[in-house]
Design goal:
This protein has 655 residues and is of the alpha/beta class. Helices cover 43% and strands 21% of the residues. It folds into five domains: 125 residues, Response regulator (Rossmann fold), CATH 3.40.50; 118 residues, PAS domain (Beta-Lactamase, 2-Layer Sandwich), CATH 3.30.450; 69 residues; 163 residues, Heat Shock Protein 90 (2-Layer Sandwich); 123 residues, Response regulator (Rossmann fold, 3-Layer(aba) Sandwich). The chain is built from 21 helices and 24 strands. The strands form six sheets. It has a five-stranded parallel beta sheet, sandwiched between helices. The protein has a five-stranded antiparallel beta sheet with strand order 9-8-12-11-10, with helices on both faces. A five-stranded mixed beta sheet has the order 14-16-17-19-18. The radius of gyration is 33 Å and the shape is elongated.
């Protein structure tokens, strides 16, 4: 049986660590992997266990891949070290190679990891074998000749007493020197070292000769017979007499120009990849913002039309606008979620919750859509089922699965059950979503969890959609260390089972223990007069500004600032009860800077400042939370959501 490859993986993103393991298993590697997420774990594991190779990300909280490389080389100089990262720049990549990194694999091309791992392990094994062969050379000159013939390397043998150096025929084969061009002394070699490295190489060799070390290794450029320079890997062994005095060195020089060329090409490729990733990230941010901002106006004014139209025909038109806009918004949300999941930017924060409570709060939001299709949406969640999950991710998962169930069910019912099931000899919490829909064929069940894949595809597809929902669901379940199981039969229906990690804890949980969507009946703001609730709206988009004013009509008096500078002046001149602040304010300062300055005003230390923005990616949300805002309201938002957000900041009695 093949011995497993022992791997130490330095990675703080659980999804990336899982993806790495899956990729290696796809390449038929037999592996034993230990994952370290920080400096302490990495150094403890490295000192406590034996590994064949280290795979490391570059950027970790409070620690870097370069530091990990230096530490590992100080303890195990020959242990292979491969960077698996998406953010290693050219300068750091060059530094990593100089410190002894074996290779680099981009996370965006993780499929190349198998090839890189095989190559590095083969090279390591080859180097180990070479050292063993060189040790055998000391015992037999004849054996040396066989080794030289087998490797084709330049082998040199130096007598430290006389200074005589013997060079084998490898000097001709690898470096293009004829026998009469070679001198049998060390000066001939040192004169051909590259000027940029000569001093360092000679100092290193002198230090080696005066140390107790037995093996010296170095890489440098060596002038070849044509006058150019060739990159070589030089490795030698020092022989000592019975008194411990060195008297002889035997070593080999190998042409590694192709390896250095590959490394240079790799650095260029990494730079292009990083530039591409930066452009993609910027493009996604801009697309997200530029789609959400006009969608706020489209959906908002369409809702206002519905409230004010009497004719059934025109109400249907307005409803169609709302439905079409909501469909576009769902597609935008899915694309952004997929982008963040693929880029490892979807943070997961798990805690113990009651799945029945979450389903019970979230399910009513889908009743109308099911009712419109005359489908029964059943809630079978009577008992408490405790699981450790990320509530935001779970709501995202449930939303995708129920939306799909409603879309693909033409008649009958959809049932959502929370329960405990047996899986892998453990009792685990689960959510089961079962429908009487069209079902999924066995062939399609293999692909529908892939990005942009559906049961019905092409120009003749029967149902609309981007084909991202199930892909997102599966990725989120992996991040929460859970799994999704599908059982489906065409014409009968489908059952999706979400299985979460087992837990023995079952605390008493309340609805308030996790975030829920705002309720339609929770807004009694009409009790407050406009004079009592004066709001500063900072918004550069006139359509969105007009929409927000309509939302607050009769509830608050609103002053509008179309840029940050005006907002600051108005804040200085007036005492506002609340501020609605857009982030992207066009030319000039943005919402972050404006908020920072306003917060420095003595009468605005505790005034609610609500961020109303189209920036909804998770790193953007985290930045908003730490920049002086008291609330975050993503565009597009409804009148109900705006009033709910404002209502959180005032003591208003319900009527």
């Amino acid at each position: 049986m093949e011995k497993p490859i022992r791997i130490l993986n330095l990675e703080d993103v659980a999804y990336d660590a899982t993806l790495l393991t899956v990729e290696l298993k796809k390449e038929y590697f037999s592996v034993e992997i230990m994952v370290a997420t920080n400096r302490t774990e990495f150094e403890e594991m490295l000192n406590s266990y034996s590994f064949d190779v280290i795979l490391a990300d570059h950027n970790l909280p409070g620690y870097s891949g370069i530091e990990a490389l230096q530490y590992s080389k100080s303890i195990f100089p020959d242990l292979p070290f491969i960077f698996v990262s998406g953010t290693l720049g050219e300068e750091k990549a060059i530094l990593a190679m100089r410190y002894g990194a074996s290779d680099f694999v981009s996370k965006n091309h993780i499929e190349k990891l198998g090839y890189a791992l095989r190559r590095v392990l083969n090279e390591t094994d080859a180097k180990r074998q070479l050292i063993e062969l060189n040790n055998a050379i000391f015992e037999s000159e004849e054996r040396l000749r066989y080794v030289v013939k087998a490797t084709g390397e330049l082998v040199w043998d130096m007598d430290l007493i006389s200074g005589f150096v013997h060079w084998n025929t490898g000097s001709q084969y690898q470096f293009g020197y004829l026998p009469h061009q070679i001198e049998n002394n060390l000066d001939w070699w040192s004169q051909r070292l590259h000027p940029d490295e000569k001093k360092t190489i000679l100092a290193g060799l002198d230090k080696f000769l005066n140390s107790k070390e037995e093996i010296w290794k170095s890489e440098y450029r060596f002038k070849n017979g044509e006058g150019g320079y060739t990159w070589v890997a030089d490795s030698c062994c020092l022989l000592r007499d019975s008194n411990g005095n060195p008297y002889r060195i035997i070593g080999s020089m190998n042409d590694i120009s192709q390896l250095h060329k590959a490394q240079d090409d790799l650095l260029i490729s990494k730079q292009k990849i990083e530039e591409s990733e930066k452009l993609k990230s910027s493009l996604l941010d801009n697309i997200n913002h530029e789609l959400r901002t006009p969608m706020n106006g489209i959906l908002g004014f369409a809702d206002l039309l519905l409230e004010n139209l009497d004719k059934p025909e025109t109400r249907i038109m307005a409803e169609n606008i709302v439905h079409s806009g909501q469909r576009l918004l769902n597609t935008v949300n899915s694309i952004m979620d997929l982008a963040q999941l693929s880029g490892g930017k979807f943070p997961i924060h798990t805690r113990l919750v009651d799945l029945s409570l979450i389903v019970g709060e979230f399910l009513p939001g889908h009743f109308k859509m099911a009712s419109d299709k005359r489908i029964s949406l059943l809630n079978n969640t009577e008992n408490a089922v405790i699981a450790k999950v990320d509530t935001f991710a779970l709501q995202n998962i449930i939303n995708h699965l129920i939306n799909n169930a409603i879309k693909f069910t033409l008649k009958g019912w959809i049932e959502v059950t929370t329960t405990y099931i047996r899986a892998n000899n453990e009792t685990k919490p689960a959510i089961i979503i079962k429908d009487t829909g069209i079902g999924i064929s066995k062939e399609k069940q293999k692909i529908i969890f892939n990005d942009f894949r559906q049961e019905s595809e092409g120009r003749d597809r029967s149902f609309q959609g981007a084909g991202l929902g199930l892909s997102i669901v599966q990725k989120l379940m992996v991040l929460m260390e859970g799994e999704i199981v599908l059982d489906s039969e065409p014409g009968v229906g489908s059952t999706f089972t979400l299985i979460f990690p087992a837990t023995t804890l079952s605390p008493k949980l309340k609805t308030s223990d996790y975030p829920v969507l705002p309720k339609e009946s929770s807004i009694p703001l009409e009790e407050i007069s406009p004079e009592e609730l004066r709001v500063l709206l900072v918004e550069d988009d006139k359509i969105n500004a007009e929409l927000t004013c309509f939302y607050l009509e009769g509830i608050a008096s609103v002053d509008i600032a179309y840029n940050g500078e005006t907002a600051i002046e108005l804040a200085k001149q007036n005492n506002y009860a609340a501020i609605l602040m857009d982030i992207n304010l066009g030319i000039g300062m943005d919402g972050f800077e404006a908020t920072k300055i306003i917060r420095q005003l003595s009468n605005y230390k505790s005034v609610p400042i609500i961020a109303t923005t189209g920036y909804t990616l998770y790193d953007e949300i985290e930045m908003i939370k730490t920049s002086g805002f008291t609330e975050y309201l993503p565009k597009p938002f409804s009148r109900q959501e705006l009033l709910t957000s404002i209502n959180k900041k005032f003591s208003i009695k319900e009527t």
